[in-house]
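User: Hi! I'm working on a homework problem where we have to compare a predicted structure to a textbook description. Could you give me the structure for the chain below?
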Amino acid sequence: MRNTRVIAFANNKGGSGKSTSASNVGAALAQSGMRVLAVDGDMQMNLTLAFMDEEQALTLAQSGNNLYHVIRDGRAIEDVIVPTPIEGLDLVPSSTLMSGIEFDLFTKWQREFILKKALEKIKASGEYDYILLDAPPTLGGWVMNIICAADFVVIPVEASPWGVFGLANMVDFIEQVRGIAPQVSILGIAITKADERKKYFKETAAELRAQNAFPLFETMIHTDSAVEWAQDQSTPVVVCKKSSRSAKEYTELAKEIHDHVCR
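Assistant: Happy to help. Predicted structure tokens:
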């Protein structure tokens, strides 16, 4: 039986590469022989769109077969899992209705643990090596739910002048959540959208390396047009552009994450 690990990709700053990182790390882990379940927790549905075209995604969003109905109506998460074209990787799609999830959670008993409870059966089954959770760029009850359900958190940080802005708030939020979910820990910071020609990249990298509060992954994801091309094809770059720089980097990041988790 597999020892299922749950990893949340979270950052309260938008544009940090959470969904891109979650989809490509998930695909790279699946390519290495792991069984992976990707869970889209964001109303923007970017993780869902990483594996299927817009028409398919909207059809699922408008049906009862998505994460929103698991959280609001108590549907079994096993009933809304859909396969992706990538062998070994399945998906729990999101819905635009997730925009109202904070209100829906407000009336529920032990609302911080709704997602954790929804994942209990499938986690205990050992069907998957990894469950990857994609969080929206906010700090609130729903993101608290996601972190409470996780064993580890990966924080993608964009290598830009504002990339580190708000990171301390994210880390403080995780530490607060640890008060009710002590199992969760920060696995590491992943630098994304790096452009070594730019001065701000060096400043961002230096600032992150200087801190001692949390680990920094050695693998950085550089700016690469192949990522946007892959997104347009609704396929992770590690699948459709295997020879690209970003595909190789995401494959290395997935290996680094796996090695950290298995220590």
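For your comparison, note the following. Residues 5-261 form a domain with the Rossmann fold fold (CATH 3.40.50.300). The longest strand covers residues 185-192. Good luck with the assignment!
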